[in-house]
Specification:
By secondary structure, this protein is α/β, with parallel strands linked by helices. The chain has two domains: 85 residues, Leucine Dehydrogenase, chain A, domain 1 (Rossmann fold); 124 residues, NAD(P)-binding Rossmann-like Domain (Rossmann fold). Helices cover 41% and strands 15% of the residues. It contains ten helices and eleven strands. It has a six-stranded parallel beta sheet with strand order 1-11-8-7-5-6. A three-stranded parallel beta sheet has the order 3-2-4, with helices on both faces. Helix 2 links the parallel strand 2 and strand 3. Helix 1 runs parallel beside helix 10, helix 2 crosses helix 10 and helix 6 crosses helix 10. It is globular. The structure holds NADPH dihydro-nicotinamide-adenine-dinucleotide phosphate (NDP). The site of NADPH dihydro-nicotinamide-adenine-dinucleotide phosphate has 25 residues, from helix 10.
Length: 288
């Protein structure tokens, strides 16, 4: 039986529509959510992501402050910019698009962003709070993955969730969020022997690796929910995920497409975090 498509584009559109209404209300109270987006260099994929984020800001009513810097910018110049944005009351969220060009220390830059403005949720404060089950900014891609499951009433409670990939920005936080929702979680990575065997045990299979077709149809348990976070460009220039979609959809009960799944959800959750940051700055109660 072919899987039901998890329409991330639609779920993201619904979230953004809700945010737009909320932002209209905030503006009426004099609160104007603002997001600073910093792009360093000319990486075409990064440029596209930044453009999409700015488009989403416009659509929801968030003011976006764009900072485009040459790849030759020094670490110190970038730190100075982050410090300025940390101190700018119009800016509630700061996003530095990764990856940064060679020679720049991304970790130092991420750690420099004020925890109150870390809407990407990549810094130690946000990640620490996630581990401690305390409210804090949740990184946008894992948060978006959870929201897609929620939108399709896929409750992780009691299920076996397998997360393939253990990066700090996707795999690890996603595993923590699934655990928070009472799944039994396995994290797989490049040193996991017999990945197929591990994946076949997954009621919920989330993949964030960055290798096209690394999850073949025979690695998907019948009836599983598959969340494909990977983004790959084929030699023909087509955007695909990490999962062999046509084969996997014949076995899964639910599956996210690429494009149209995790990508739009990531942007929607960035808008969500920015609104929460603006409310926090105004001393309002927030849900992060
Ligand atoms: P990283 O490169 O940081 O992490 C990749 C992970 O995959 C690592 O943990 C690595 O293991 C693991 N891995 C590599 N090869 C294998 C293998 N053969 N078997 C099992 N695991 C393996 O990537 P990110 O987490 O940053 O991103 C992952 C993918 O998600 C990329 O395609 C990226 O473009 C996409 N992405 C999409 C977003 C969206 O908005 N849709 C946002 C962010 C990322 P190890 O740790 O052992 O090296």
């Amino acid at each position: 039986m072919a899987a039901e498509l998890i329409d991330g584009k639609k779920v993201a559109a619904d979230i953004k529509a809700g945010l737009k209404t909320e932002i209209d209300g905030l503006k009426a109270q004099g609160i104007n959510p603002g997001l600073a987006v910093v792009l360093v260099g000319e990486d075409p994929a990064s440029k596209k992501y930044v453009a999409n984020k700015q488009k989403a800001c416009e659509a929801t009513g968030i003011t976006s402050f764009s900072h485009k810097l040459p790849a030759t910018v020094s670490q110190q110049e970038l730190i100075t910019l982050v410090d300025e944005l940390n101190n700018d009351p119009r800016v509630h969220g700061i996003l530095v698009q990764l990856p940064l060009p060679e020679g720049l220390d991304a970790k130092e830059i991420m750690n420099r962003i004020s925890p109150q403005k870390d809407v990407d949720g990549f810094g130690p404060d946000a990640l620490g709070k996630l581990m401690l089950d305390e409210p804090g900014f949740i990184s946008c891609t894992p948060h978006g993955a959870m929201k897609m499951l929620e939108a399709y009433n896929i409750d992780p409670k009691g299920k076996h969730a397998v997360v393939v990939g253990r990066s700090v920005i996707v795999g690890k936080p996603l595993a923590m969020l699934l655990l928070r929702k009472h799944a039994t979680v396995t994290i797989a990575h490049s040193r996991t022997p017999d990945l197929k065997d591990v994946c076949l045990k997954a009621d919920i299979l989330c993949v964030a690796v960055g290798k096209a077709k690394m999850i073949t149809g025979d690695m998907v348990k019948e009836g599983a929910a598959v969340v494909d976070i990977g983004i790959n460009v084929t030699p023909e220039g087509k955007l695909v995920g990490d999962v062999d979609f046509p084969a996997a959809k014949e076995r899964a009960a639910y599956i996210t497409p690429v494009p149209g799944g995790a990508g739009p959800m990531t942007i929607a959750m960035l808008m969500y975090n920015t609104v929460q940051a603006a409310k926090m700055a105004a001393g309002m109660k927030v849900e992060v």
